[in-house]
């Protein structure tokens, strides 16, 4: 039986999006976002196909939910896994066919998204409404949506790992088909969302160098191409606002490119695909003008140009020994980091009481200190952990870590992996190693992200290679930071059988 919720207000017409109907405005009926909603930066909510809808939090639209064929005596129509009976507004939407699909759609909203976005982010960034609407129209986007949720869930329940790979493979097949048939031009919303989700899938999977040497690299490169196309289109017809999906995708690209480049040199090529300065069309503008700067940054919080500096230094670290021009540029970046550190230390006393701002400033300081270690080693390849400057930076960084809260409400996810990975190659004492081990464990327990597990496994391998108490000279931990293939391609990570050690638990 179809159940219908009564309307709070009568709709003016029987066509157009719900937002235009409620506002009693004419709708040009262009999907997935009509011109009126684009102009006013509203969420464009449409009636879902076959009388099945998802209610927007701010609308009074009708919701009609039909019983799904999967809603039978069996908790799963395909009996693929016994995770329990789940009901959600997504029942009956296209591409959502099994109870596992429904479970994962709820998991994505309630468990996954809450760990991806920063706690300071505007609540609208976590609203999956637009993603669901686009996914309801494109099976490829829906597949990426479910694959990412399943991969993240698989760390707590391994039964989800095989379905995650199955969803993922179907997405790749769908993308190849769309490209071959000319259905994907490069700037579509569904393609942007699907590609960003594929990046998150690889990050949550754990990069398996034995079987998938490219990992997130092709997806980040694809995301760069898509953003480049969209930026080119928007430059022809400038908008007064930034669509939140453009903001999220641009910050996602900057965040993961800058962090993953340290681990895998394949990521370096995305810097040649798009000019990072062109991203300011999304990164320097606010989605919500009346909200704070930090509320308008769902992933980065800090100045996005610092991530540009991190990415540039990571690329330089893969070119050691440096040519003259690269060395000069490295010294310029080193000077810039010193200036940034002074600015942050000047701000910290202004927020003496514990709170979100103080925590963010400590995180920024940690990123800067870790980057200083990387650039110092890149410019001076002979440097060892006993170098006075390295010891000074490590001491300051460990103090910053002790002041940062790593808990569920922090929503830190894998954001701390990058600075902690660098510090793991710079510490000398067992006390510091123990502190880093505890910090990585906390990050893992609040994120269950594959990237975190990879860093944990890698650091244990590094520490086993050197006796930190005796200070043996046969293995220099800092050399790992400037390995041309990236940290996770370092020879110490490979067994005599040729398989990466950190793949054992991935």
UniProtKB/TrEMBL annotation:
<dbReference type="GO" id="GO:0005634">
    <property type="term" value="C:nucleus"/>
</dbReference>
<dbReference type="GO" id="GO:0008270">
    <property type="term" value="F:zinc ion binding"/>
</dbReference>
<dbReference type="InterPro" id="IPR021858">
    <property type="entry name" value="Fun_TF"/>
</dbReference>
<dbReference type="InterPro" id="IPR036864">
    <property type="entry name" value="Zn2-C6_fun-type_DNA-bd_sf"/>
</dbReference>
<dbReference type="InterPro" id="IPR001138">
    <property type="entry name" value="Zn2Cys6_DnaBD"/>
</dbReference>
<dbReference type="GO" id="GO:0000981">
    <property type="term" value="F:DNA-binding transcription factor activity, RNA polymerase II-specific"/>
</dbReference>
<dbReference type="Pfam" id="PF11951">
    <property type="entry name" value="Fungal_trans_2"/>
</dbReference>
<protein>
    <recommendedName>
        <fullName>Zn(2)-C6 fungal-type domain-containing protein</fullName>
    </recommendedName>
</protein>
<feature type="domain" description="Zn(2)-C6 fungal-type">
    <location>
        <begin position="16"/>
        <end position="46"/>
    </location>
</feature>
<keyword id="KW-0539">Nucleus</keyword>
<dbReference type="Pfam" id="PF00172">
    <property type="entry name" value="Zn_clus"/>
</dbReference>
